[in-house]
Amino acid sequence: MSRQPVEHFYSEKELQEMVNRINSFASDYSGWKFTHARKEHQDLFGDVIKPGDYYFKHGSGPAFDDVMKLSALSMEKVCFALFESTVFLKPIADRILKQRQKRMFKVRSKLSLVGNHKDEKSARSGAKRNR
After folding, report:
1. Which residue stretches of the chain have pLDDT < 70?
2. What residues form DSSP beta bridges with 36?
3. Per residue in 21-37, is it b (16+ CB within 10 Å) or e — as a string?
4. Domain range for residue 34?
5. Assigned domain for 2 exists
6. Collapsed DSSP state (helix, strand, coil) of residue 19
7. Does some domain include residue 3?
8. Closest Cα partner for 20 from 106, 36, 44, 28?
């Protein structure tokens, strides 16, 4: 079977958005991660990832070497097949991402309120000592 010329479905930014959508269905700690190859690898579909190439990896077990790897092009193909063939999947993933973003915003705002409250207390107590 002869190989077709490399065809990109997404820009780099769009690919990252698609991977974020895939990761929305995983826990916050077990998604696909973007990384840089220091040595040659073979991805899940047999494509070669050369040193210096960027690729995606996903830990699939407790051991250091229990990792699934996908070249950027393989990830593009997976994303294209997954999201272009399933009309409702992209909006569901987007909704999950928005909900996560709202939760993170709430947590950050609570933390900043707590931090500001502590800063105000220490500033007031320091002001009393300086009088």
Report:
1. 1-6, 61-65, 114-131
2. 54
3. bbbbeeeeeebbeeeeb
4. 8-85
5. no
6. helix
7. no
8. 28
The answer to whether residues 73 and 21 belong to one domain is yes
Q: Is 99 found in the same domain as 38?
A: no
Indicate the length of the chain as a whole number.
Answer: 131
59 within some domain: yes
pLDDT digits over 79-101, tens only?
999 998 888 999 999 999 999 99
Q: Please classify residue 41 by burial: count the beta carbons closer than 10 Å to its beta carbon, then call 0-12 exposed, 13-18 middle and 19+ buried.
A: middle
| Same domain flag for 28 and 71 | yes
Q: How far does Cα 79 stand from its chain's mean position? A: 14
| Count of domains forming the chain | 2
Encoded amino acid at 3, one letter: R
